Amino acid sequence: MDDGSASKSQASSGRFTNKREGYLEWPDYFMAIAFLSAQRSKDPRTQVGACIVNEEKKIVGIGYNGMPNGCSDDLMPWAREADSILDTKQLYVCHAELNAVLNKNSADVKNCTIYVALFPCNECAKVVIQSSIKEVVYYSDKYKDRPAFMAAKRMFDQAGVTYRQYQPSKKKIVIDFSLIEAMSDCVIADMDSLKINAPTVDSQPDSTS
Ligand SMILES: [Zn+2]
């Protein structure tokens, strides 16, 4: 009996013959990777990630904010304010955008799009412009009234780098490792269950006659 839902009957019959619905769209995928890489950050206050994507929708660089290579996360300061600026993180931390560009696995990032959680600061705007990235997709612009971010926009506007706020198609993306165990069928075909209409030995012409 037809229940009026193709996907429902497909699921209930155990035959998944049509394309899955609700899969991750490209922009959500790239922004989610930026957010996921931010989870690697040791900064106790601000975790930011960046993901650089080329014109073929291939990821060519990922980064998050952190201390320079060889500078110990345990010895360097993480405070935003201190009696001396030498004891604040500002002078040391490499921002996500810089790390993503420097981590690139391609010759360059010309005409790429960078997905970032926060609108780039002025220093990162320089990196974006000088590396010929053409577009910035950001999630939050919460510091837009600060000079560093106003300066970033000023440079982007003159250099022709476009920027737009990311509009997520879903509010949350959950990664549940255990889901793979619960999936009902195997990616590898069970050869015993396959029926292949290949000619049998008996049906082939008898070469002896
Ligand atoms: Zn920055």
TrEMBL record:
Enzyme class label: hydrolase
EC number: 3.5.4.12
InterPro entries: APOBEC/CMP_deaminase_Zn-bd, CMP_dCMP_dom, Cytidine_deaminase-like, dCMP_deaminase-rel, Deoxycytidylate_deaminase_dom
Cofactor(s) listed: Zn(2+)
SUPFAM superfamilies according to UniProt: Cytidine deaminase-like
Domain CMP/dCMP-type deaminase: 25-163
Alphabetized Pfam families for the sequence: dCMP_cyt_deam_1
Keywords for this protein: Hydrolase, Metal-binding, Nucleotide biosynthesis, Zinc
Sequence similarity: Belongs to the cytidine and deoxycytidylate deaminase family.
Identification of the protein by name: dCMP deaminase
Lineage, highest ranks first: Eukaryota, Metazoa, Spiralia, Lophotrochozoa, Mollusca
